[in-house]
Design goal:
The complex is a heterodimer of chains A (about 425) and B (about 230). Chain A is an alpha+beta fold and about 425 residues long. Chain A has helices spanning about 5-35, 40-80, 105-110, 155-160, 170-175, 185-190, 235-240, 255-270, 285-325, 325-335, 340-375, 385-400, 405-410, 415; strands at about 80-85, 85-90, 95, 115-125, 130, 150-155, 160-165, 180-185, 200-205, 210-220, 230, 245-250, 275-280. Chain A folds into two domains: about 30-70 and about 290-415, no CATH class; about 100-270, no CATH class. Chain A is built from 14 helices and 13 strands. Chain B has a single domain, classed as P-loop containing nucleotide triphosphate hydrolases (Rossmann fold, 3-Layer(aba) Sandwich), CATH 3.40.50. In chain B, the strands form two sheets. A six-stranded mixed beta sheet of chain B has the order 6-7-8-3-9-10, with helices on both faces. In chain B, strands 2-1-4-5 form a four-stranded antiparallel beta sheet, covered by helices on one side. The chains are: A alpha+beta (about 425), B alpha/beta (about 230).
């Protein structure tokens, strides 16, 4: 190695050493300057603290609320299932079921391990008949679309996670005797003007009267029942031609889903179990996904807006700080600071304030999420990446908020700055 | 006292400022040669352009025209980084209003000079910096007050801290702008004694003042009037 190369390397190493030392010194100066003004530090930190805290809190509560919803929907999915015949495309291009539920379907599946309830459901085609509460045919009345009519047998309430608002559900006796009774979904009852069953109300389907014996408040797995008129399957088959069960709703024990999914098709069609498929209830999944997305978006928007307000707070605090520190800027320039080093120091100060605010805000947000969750009896759900990421985001926000103030500080002419009186 | 020629030199330097669309010429063709080891006092009435001249000598400002040579090097073509480098390593400033950071201790105020005053040729370790700072504070008689804050010091002590900060990096030139402007006579004399001592040790000193008593301490006395040096 020649002496020249050695000299160049020594110079390069010395240059690197001075640069590293300078960066460390400026970082130290930034921290010392930040710590020297507790009031201003508090103001700057407060903006980021509130912004990041709100972001973590809103996103954390959003995740927790979504998790809470998810656990409820998961519970529904874990304790309910639906069996439907497989379909094949017919000659007209429409999908047609390849099998029909046997008459003793309920008996076949209720004996299976893990099945707690079963109910057959069948759509009823009214053939143009209307549903009214009075047996008067008014030719002048505008035509309306009647509520859907669904026929059911078995333990419908348990199988679909249903809850009665009033009255009772029809039973096996009604089904076997083909009694003209009906249970109305809450929305259908409201639409028909029936608010109570105390006066033994009646609905007319075509010319036949059906005694309303109950009002269904809600159904966890089949919300469509809330707007339907529900008849016993035996009654519907006797009154309307072509009523065929399309779905077998099952209530299942927690953890028995896989077993039931395997055994139910075999029980219904031992020679061709593939003719039936078992799935989790579909309606809530879509609902759940949509709701989670909406919640996340709303909470994210609130958090981001609050964080922007925090960034403006840091920028304002830093800017007013520069106005107060013009003399100091002049001194540093006189001592040999370049414009870049002045900008670097103010950027580092701003980033340090943002990072501190981010750390404190993130911690505060986590505390609020846990506190609210404990108070509500929820399980707190918070992505750790969010907590640490939010703290780092505070630093980034501080850095960005410091861009304009630091460039202004760097642009100050040292001769002008030194005219400002200092200590 | 022997002088070694040519540390700083102004050649026909002018400095004009524009205000309300009108150009105001503060310095008009100033020529000045300050040798190494020299002690020059520049006096003049308020508004004569003394501070403008000091800013140019300290590379805090640029002449509108003319030439300024520092250590024989023309400074006109130097960029911000080079000018800052020359200021940090080669020039020590003492201001009338001290410019000390109130939240820092006396020692920290002195150490501040090392943050920007390092050169690649002579990077200093933390212990070296501390030793030089303590040495400078001993030189100005404030070694025992190194942990104090500026707010607890008298005006004379604050100015001595500023001088310690200006000399701790061993600059070649000390520029003092009204260094006794905020001091009583006793403190002024103490500060001027110190400046004389530093000059006697070889430090080149340029003092801007309107105080004739300060000017009398210098080896050379120039008067700035109407933007011209006589």
């Amino acid at each position: 190695m020649t002496a020249v190369v050695k000299a160049v390397r020594r110079r390069g190493a010395a240059h690197l050493g001075v640069r590293t030392r300078l960066l460390r010194d400026i970082g130290g100066e930034a921290l010392a300057s930040v710590g020297a003004r507790p009031g201003r530090l508090l103001l700057g930190v407060l903006g980021t603290l509130v912004g990041i805290g709100a972001l973590v809190m809103t996103l954390g509560l959003g995740q927790t609320a979504s998790g809470q919803l998810s656990s409820r929907f998961d519970a529904v999915a874990a304790t309910h299932a639906e069996v439907e015949p497989a379909t094949a495309e017919g000659s007209d291009g429409t999908a047609r079921p390849v099998a029909a539920f046997p008459d003793d379907s309920l008996a076949r599946v209720t004996g299976l391990a893990g099945v707690t309830a079963a109910a057959l459901l069948a759509p009823v085609d009214l053939g143009g008949r209307e549903i009214t509460t009075v047996p008067v045919l008014d030719p002048a009345r505008a035509p309306t679309t009647p509520p859907a009519v669904v026929a059911a047998s078995g333990d419908l309430l348990t199988a679909v996670g249903g809850r009665l608002e009033r009255g009772r559900m029809f039973d096996r006796g009604h089904d076997e005797r083909h009694d003209r009774v009906a249970v109305l979904g809450a929305e259908a009852a409201e639409r028909l003007g029936i608010t109570s069953i105390d006066s033994r109300p009646t609905v007319f389907i075509g010319e036949h009267a059906y005694a309303v014996i109950g009002i269904l408040a809600s159904s966890e797995t089949r919300r469509s029942l809330e707007s339907a008129v529900i008849l016993p399957l035996g009654t519907a088959r006797a009154e309307f031609p072509g009523v065929t069960a399309s779905t077998l709703a099952l209530g299942i024990a927690l953890g028995a889903g896989r077993l039931v999914a395997h055994q139910a098709p075999i029980a219904l069609a031992p020679s061709a179990p593939e003719a039936f498929s078992v799935s989790a209830p579909g309606e809530p999944t879509t609902f759940q996904t949509g709701l989670q997305g909406d919640l996340d978006l709303i909470f994210l928007a609130i958090g981001v807006i609050t964080l922007l307000a925090g960034a403006v707070g840091i920028a304002t605090t830093t800017l007013s700080g520069i106005a107060e520190r013009i003399g100091e800027i002049g001194l540093r320039r006189a001592l040999g600071a370049t414009r870049g080093q002045i900008a670097g120091q103010f950027l580092a100060e701003s980033a340090a304030v943002g990072l501190l605010g981010g750390l404190m805000g993130s911690a505060a947000g986590v505390v609020v999420v846990v506190g609210v969750s404990v108070a509500q009896g929820w399980t707190p759900v918070l992505d750790l990446g969010l907590a640490f990421g939010a703290a780092a985001a505070g630093g980034v926000v501080g850095l960005l908020a410091g861009l304009v103030p630091s460039s202004r500080a760097a642009a100050i002419e040292p001769a002008d700055a030194l005219r400002t009186t200092a200590t | 006292m022997t002088s070694i020629p040519g540390l700083i030199e102004l050649r026909g330097v002018t400095r004009a400022f524009t205000a309300n669309g009108q150009s105001l010429e503060v310095l008009r063709g100033v020529d000045l040669l300050v040798d190494r080891g020299d002690f020059v006092a520049i006096t003049g009435s308020s508004g004569a352009g003394k501070s403008t001249m000091l800013n140019i000598l300290g590379l805090l400002d640029r002449p509108t025209s003319g030439e300024y040579l520092f250590d024989g090097r023309p400074t006109a073509a130097l960029g911000d980084r080079e000018r800052s480098g020359v200021r940090g390593a080669g020039v020590g400033f003492v201001f009338q209003s001290f410019h000390l950071l109130s939240a820092r201790t006396v020692r920290e105020n002195v150490l501040l000079a090392f943050v920007y005053g390092e050169t690649e040729e002579r990077p200093r370790s933390t212990s070296e910096r501390l030793a030089l700072a303590e040495d400078a504070l001993s030189r100005v008689g404030l070694a025992r007050r190194s942990a104090a804050h500026p707010g607890t010091l008298s005006g004379g002590e604050r100015q001595r801290v500023a001088i310690a900060r200006a000399i701790c990096t061993r600059p070649r030139l000390l520029l003092a702008d009204e260094p006794t402007g905020n001091l009583d006579r006793r403190n002024s004399d103490a500060v001027l004694d110190l400046v004389e001592e530093l000059n006697a040790d070889g430090l080149t000193v340029v003092v801007i003042t309107h105080d004739e008593a300060v000017a009398r301490r210098a080896h050379r006395h120039r008067v700035l009037e109407g933007g011209r040096l006589s």
